[in-house]
UniProtKB/TrEMBL annotation:
Coiled coil, from the record: none
Protein name in the entry: PadR family transcriptional regulator
Annotated organism of origin: Microbacterium esteraromaticum
InterPro entries in UniProt: Metal_resp_DNA-bind_regulator (IPR052509), Tscrpt_reg_PadR_N (IPR005149), WH-like_DNA-bd_sf (IPR036388), WH_DNA-bd_sf (IPR036390)
Gene3D superfamilies listed in its UniProt record: Winged helix-like DNA-binding domain superfamily/Winged helix DNA-binding domain
Residue ranges occupied by any Transcription regulator PadR N-terminal domain in the UniProt entry: 18-88
Length: 111
């Protein structure tokens, strides 16, 4: 049996990638979905909204509505103080974790 390792890795980090995008600026769902889809982190916009709902339930993001120049009102997402703290914790732990994993799975042997 072959396991889609990439899917498992994406599942583990996509929430933090959303937080990272929102740390730059508030975004509406479609724009977030485009960024994540282009990066290969989600398959479609349909997978984003349940994730955003979880982030809201956790208190990591909040929403506000803003009129759009090209259509209906858009719901924007932004980080809360809790979300900022959670992203900072992830950033703190990510680099050492990634280095450890890289050192364990690399093909060459250390001398």
């Amino acid at each position: 049996m072959t396991v889609d390792v990439g899917a498992q890795m994406r599942k583990g980090v996509v929430e933090y990638c959303v937080l990272g995008l929102l740390s730059r600026e508030p975004m509406y769902g479609w724009r977030l979905a485009e960024s994540l889809t282009d990066a290969g982190l989600i398959a479609s916009i349909g997978t984003l909204y349940p994730l955003l709902a979880r982030l809201r339930e956790n208190g990591w993001v909040s929403t506000f509505d803003q009129p759009s120049e090209s259509g209906p009102v858009r719901r924007y997402y932004r980080l809360t103080e809790t979300g900022i703290a959670q992203l900072a914790l992830f950033r703190e732990q990510w680099a050492p974790f990634a280095l450890t994993v890289s050192s364990l799975v690399r093909e060459d042997r250390p001398s």
